[in-house]
Known about the structure:
The chain is mostly helical. The protein has 2 domains: 12-149 and 164-205, MFS general substrate transporter like domains (Growth Hormone, Chain: A), CATH 1.20.1250.20; 217-395, MFS general substrate transporter like domains (Growth Hormone, Chain: A), CATH 1.20.1250.20. The protein has 18 helices and no strands. It has helices at residues 11-14, 20-31, 37-49, 52-80, 82-105, 110-118, 126-137, 142-173, 178-195, 219-246, 253-273, 281-291, 293-301, 305-316, 319-333, 339-367, 370-373, 376-394. Helix 2 (20-31) runs antiparallel to helix 9 (178-195), helix 3 runs antiparallel to helix 4 and helix 8 packs antiparallel against helix 11. The longest helix has 32 residues, at 142-173. The two termini are 41 Å apart.
Amino acid sequence: MSGETPRSHGYRRLFALPGARAFTAGNLLARLPMGMFGVSAVVMIAGSRGSYALAGAVSATGLAATGVAGPWLARLVDRHGQARVALPATLVAVLGSLALLLCVRYDAPDWTLFAAYAGTAATPNIGGLSRARWAHLLRGEPGALHTANAFEQAADELCFMLGPVLASFLTGTFFPEAGTLTAAVLLLAGMLLFCAQRATEPPPAVRSPAPSPLRSPGIPPLLACFVATGAVFGSMEVVTIAYADGQGHRAAAGAVLALQAAGSCAAGLAFGALRPVRVRLGHCLAGMAVLMTLPWSAAGLTGSLWALAAALLAAGMATAPTMVTAMTLVQRHTPVGRLNEGMSLMVTGLLTGVACGSAAGGWAAEHLSATTGYAVPPAAAGLALLIHAGGRRRR
């Protein structure tokens, strides 16, 4: 016998833990709507009001509100427990989604759309809640935690790959509000199942003396890295849509981008299945910077959407290992009792980066060319690498 415990490595052993399958099922059910809400809201509002500018502004408001509310909500989770905070917060978020649906349906004034969608900022960081459970169940087992983090990253990619497709199908096949309504139902059902699994819930740290994660050594440079990495994702999405539109295949942009998520999902599962080796974040960021040049090369040298799709599939394979390694460092550097808050801060940084990257990619695609816009993702990845290297030198 090798002397390994049943929880050391591998997905089968991971889900042999009591309660792991149940809370994972709830987590996946609740996480799928995260890839649905944005597309559903844009289609619903644009179809009703005839304005993509209004739809985009409402969506951006919800994103900004989520970035502000996320760390505060995560702090409450750390202090009072997941079920006591996440379930009421989910109810508020669902009511916000339903309010938006009704405002659109009954032609309420435009300002009500912003107010209603801001309520969805109460949506808990579902991926963070699940990662916190794995960290609690697998404390002292870095090999198994590596596998769990890889699975969670693959789940993120899968949900953001399938969510927009499902939302587009529902809004196009049934009625414009179908996507938002289905997403709200799935979110509530998933969180009810997730929060019902109390045996795997981490104990709350009601009076944690730990300082804010922002004051913990190693966290600020990681937060800056997440902002730059988010810019990679945001710019790639906007530039790809612009490039496909210029080729006369705008409808294919979603499928092409889904290949990037598919590459990341596959790489994440493979990365988690391997026995953990000493992979440094700098190596992952360097690999991402290199692989993100592939779409730029494919667009510039071939002009083919098929070649671009293959390049995005390959480039996506750098995403999951980078995010898994970075999130493992966040778990390592975050003070005890503040884990949900630390991970939520990283999500806020990622969302900030997505917004900045979208703006930069959009500017480059409009004022230069869509092909030139593909220079933004590798530049953002290179910036993340420089930030990380600077942070290591200071430490």
